[in-house]
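In response to the reviewer comment on reproducibility (Comment 2.3), we provide here a single inverse folding case reported in full, input and output, so that an independent group could reproduce the run without further information from us. The structure tokens appear first.
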């Protein structure tokens, strides 16, 4: 299935739901900075601190039954990330999140949930890559989802740079049945899941990638804007585990 055809009309509207965020993303200065724009700097963000905000009304669900979780699903703190495999900032942030979970996850304190947010107008191949990760999960479980996703980020130069012919090669390299993988991918069976998660990110306030929300120990939600560096994210995690600490460094 052509990833450019994945976009579905929003309920009750004829307008393409991708057009609004793209008009924001295409600002050259902001793309260069790799920032996530908040279109809703409302009263819900009056407790903002630094580049990140504690948000009371953000509409992003916590862990769901069909999520891909890295770490303990019952962790005290859960990071929900919406990502695009062809986004260079997502590639950087992927490594940062892995480091965070490796540091905090061994004690079961932090978990990372990966959800799809492919920006088709910028990265036409990202949607099919997202479907490919779901096929990997179908054939090999949660661990193969993460292996496949890691491999895509490792191999792509970003910005639509991964040749689609690499996808079955990645499947083979991580030990999946290539014929079954190709059959799954060509069926388009996961296009709706990818689109649903895209829509979920938009409804939740995502205007660029990566878009993340940290569910803190005390139930608060912290919107993380863009590909924040390790030290900034570490401060957010520490504050999420200990609500008496400030969110910003």
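Designed residues, in position order:
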């Amino acid at each position: 299935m052509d990833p450019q055809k994945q976009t579905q009309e929003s309920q009750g509207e004829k307008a393409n739901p991708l057009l609004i965020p793209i008009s924001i993303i295409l600002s050259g200065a902001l793309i260069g900075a790799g920032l996530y724009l908040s279109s809703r700097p409302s009263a819900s963000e009056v407790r903002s601190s630094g580049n990140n905000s504690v948000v009371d009304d953000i509409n992003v669900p916590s862990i769901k039954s069909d999520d891909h979780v890295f770490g303990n699903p019952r962790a005290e703190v859960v990071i929900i990330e919406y990502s695009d495999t062809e986004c260079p900032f997502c590639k950087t942030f992927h490594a940062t999140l892995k480091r965070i979970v490796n540091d905090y996850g061994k004690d079961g304190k932090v978990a990372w949930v990966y959800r799809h947010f492919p920006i088709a107008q910028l990265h036409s191949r990202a949607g099919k890559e997202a479907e490919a990760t779901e096929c990997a999960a179908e054939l090999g479980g949660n661990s193969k989802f993460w292996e496949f996703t890691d491999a895509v980020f490792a191999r792509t130069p970003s910005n639509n740079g991964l040749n689609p012919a690499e996808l079955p090669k990645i499947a083979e390299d991580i030990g999946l049945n290539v014929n079954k993988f190709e059959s799954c991918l060509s069926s388009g069976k996961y296009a709706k899941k990818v689109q649903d998660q895209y829509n979920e990110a938009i409804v939740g306030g995502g205007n660029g990638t990566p878009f993340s929300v940290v569910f803190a120990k005390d139930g608060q939600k912290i919107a993380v804007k863009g590909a924040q560096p390790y030290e900034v994210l570490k401060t957010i995690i520490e504050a999420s585990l200990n609500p008496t600490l400030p969110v910003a460094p």
